[in-house]
């Protein structure tokens, strides 16, 4: 497995999970219709959005998009009164088709019942496991077993249908991506999707960028109001983690060729608010919203970066902590640079150390012991022929 590029992995985290927040950076491409053909999920777009993707595919074959907002019908497989055989049942024992991530004491909206009076909000009174929940309606719903379809819980999984996708041109205002048939969020029929709210594609490559910050700023000539997240590829800095028991200046507190060792890294994320046009939607003249923008971005970045970079057989990487955030500089006409210094720890595994165990090792063909000489000639059919002489 190849070595990890930390900046690129941070980009993947941001591009994958930003659509799950309320931050709108980049270009959003709403789907107007969804269908499934074999292992391809097909999205129909507006003519202008489809033309945009066509241009990107023609010029950049590997450009990817982030799919978001795909909600899956987690159907109720069985429903029983709870407590069972009681004259005072207050809710239902529901068994779901897929895992339910919500904890006890949270509320969930169920819909899709044939008897629409059951399409209401329920509190999770008890979570027996991820599939079996005891639910109590929050309104005055009669506690009786419904007839017809039992309904579903509309679930938004962060992976599976959602996340980074490589898009293919499907023709006639349609694009597609391959379905992951093994994911927990896999679907085989479009009816498995709750399309009351249509999903989106997000294009981030023009707004979330791994780059030398200085070079990016020199080339920043866009005259429109825009926002950028720059992962400054020149800011990565590593320092050793020493043990409190280590009184030497050695970098690590383990000393062997196959030892685990650790290193702390910092890297800068830079949030650029470009405001070259003064209109009613920004506060260029006063800068009154800069602190709220800074704090809002900090909260969203923290919620995403607490998910660690995926590890491999050489490195285990901690979640990422923002150790400092500050307004760094003001650039032309009210634009602002906000810095977020990120810190994480890399635990290097034994596979990260080059195996040189055979260095300076040689076959033995003669051994001297005091004045005795033993010469090994060869092995033949498990019989050792050797010569022993005494001087």
Q: What's the quick description here?
A:
By secondary structure, the chain is mostly beta strands. It is 12% helix and 41% strand.
What features would you highlight for this structure?
single chain, 391 residues, mainly beta, Elongation Factor Tu (Ef-tu), domain 3, STM4215-like, 3 domains, 7-stranded antiparallel beta sheet, 7-stranded mixed beta sheet, 41% strand, globular
Fold topology:
Blueprint: H1 6-17, E1 27-37, E2 40-45, H2 47-59, E3 64-68, E4 71-82, E5 91-96, E6 107-113, E7 121-127, E8 132-137, E9 150-156, E10 163-166, E11 168-169, E12 174-178, E13 193-194, E14 200-203, E15 208-211, H3 213-218, E16 226-232, E17 237-240, E18 261-274, H4 290-305, E19 315-317, E20 321-330, E21 336-348, E22 366-369, E23 372-380, E24 383-390
Parallel strand pairs: 15-16
Antiparallel strand pairs: 1-2, 1-14, 2-12, 3-10, 3-14, 4-5, 4-9, 4-13, 5-8, 6-7, 6-9, 7-8, 11-12, 16-18, 17-18, 18-21, 19-21, 20-21, 22-23, 23-24
């Amino acid at each position: 497995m190849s070595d990890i590029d930390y900046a690129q992995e941070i980009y993947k985290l941001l591009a994958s999970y930003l659509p799950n927040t309320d931050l709108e950076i980049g270009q959003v491409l709403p789907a107007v219709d969804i269908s499934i053909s074999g292992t391809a999920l097909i999205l129909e777009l507006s003519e202008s959005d489809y033309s945009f993707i066509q241009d990107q595919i023609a010029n950049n074959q590997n450009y990817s998009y982030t799919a978001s907002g795909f909600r899956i019908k987690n159907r109720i497989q069985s429903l029983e009164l709870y407590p069972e055989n009681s004259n005072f049942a207050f809710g239902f024992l529901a068994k779901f088709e897929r895992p339910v991530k919500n904890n006890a004491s949270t509320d969930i909206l169920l819909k899709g019942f044939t008897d629409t009076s059951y399409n209401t909000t329920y509190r999770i009174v008890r979570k027996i496991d991820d599939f079996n929940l005891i639910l109590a309606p929050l309104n005055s719903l009669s506690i009786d077993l419904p007839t017809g379809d039992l309904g579903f819980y509309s679930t938004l999984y962060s992976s599976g249908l959602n996340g980074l996708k490589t898009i293919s041109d499907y023709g006639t205002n349609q694009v597609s991506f391959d379905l992951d048939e093994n994911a927990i969020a896999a679907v085989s029929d479009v009816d498995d999707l709750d399309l009351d709210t249509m999903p989106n594609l997000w294009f981030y490559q023009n707004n979330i960028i791994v780059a030398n910050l200085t070079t990016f700023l020199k080339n920043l000539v866009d005259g429109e109001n825009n926002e950028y997240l720059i992962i400054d590829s020149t800011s990565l800095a590593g320092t050793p983690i020493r043990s409190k028991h280590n009184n030497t200046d050695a970098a690590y507190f383990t000393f062997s060729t196959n030892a685990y060792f650790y290193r702390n890294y910092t890297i800068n994320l830079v949030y650029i608010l470009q405001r070259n046009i003064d209109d009613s939607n920004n506060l260029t003249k006063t800068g009154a919203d800069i602190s709220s923008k800074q704090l809002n971005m900090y909260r969203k970045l923290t919620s995403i970066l607490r998910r660690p970079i995926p590890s491999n057989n050489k490195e285990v990487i901690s979640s990422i902590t923002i150790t400092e955030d500050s307004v760094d500089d003001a650039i032309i006409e009210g634009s602002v640079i906000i810095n977020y210094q990120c810190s994480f720890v890399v635990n290097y595994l034994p596979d990260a150390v080059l195996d040189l165990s055979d260095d300076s090792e040689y076959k033995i063909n003669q051994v001297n012991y005091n004045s005795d000489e033993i010469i090994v000639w060869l092995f033949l059919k498990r019989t050792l022929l050797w010569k022993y002489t005494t001087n």
